[in-house]
Amino acid sequence: MIENINEKISVITTFNSETGLVIPKKIRWKNRDYLIKNIAYYHKIRQGKNIIHVFHVTDGNLDFRLSLDSENLHWTLNETYDRSND
Questions:
Q1: Predicted confidence band at 1 (pLDDT cuts at 50, 70, 90)?
Q2: DSSP reduced 3-state for 19
Q3: How far is Cα 36 from Cα 60, in angstroms, rounded to an integer?
Q4: Which of 86, 34, 28, 74 is nearest to 57 (CA)?
C-alpha cells in the first residue's frame, strides 16, 4: 500500500563528477536509517522556475519516493510502499 508522507528527511549521497549523477545512499526518517540498495527510477519535474529531482529507490523491503528541491537543496520523503504486504 502506498502511504503519502511529505516530510523533510536527511539523505547521504554520492556525486560522480564524470557522469554528473547524484546518488542517494542512505536516508534517515523518524530516527531510523535506511540503506538504499537500488534506484529504480529518476526524473525531473519543473515547478515554475524551480527543478525538483525525483528518485524512486528501495532498501529491499520499503520503496521510497524522494525529492530534492534544487532551489533550497531540501530533501523530502514523498511516499513509501511496503513490499512485505504483497
A1: confident
A2: coil
A3: 8
A4: 34
Q: What does the pLDDT look like over 2-54, one tens digit per residue? A: 899 999 999 999 999 999 989 999 999 999 999 999 999 999 999 999 999 99
Lookup result for grid cell 535506511: 34
Smallest CA-to-CA distance from 52 within 75, 72, 74, 69 is with: 69
Structure confidence at residue 84 (pLDDT):
78
DSSP string for 44-86: EEEETTEEEEEEEEE-SSEEEEEEEETTT--EEEEEEEEGGG-
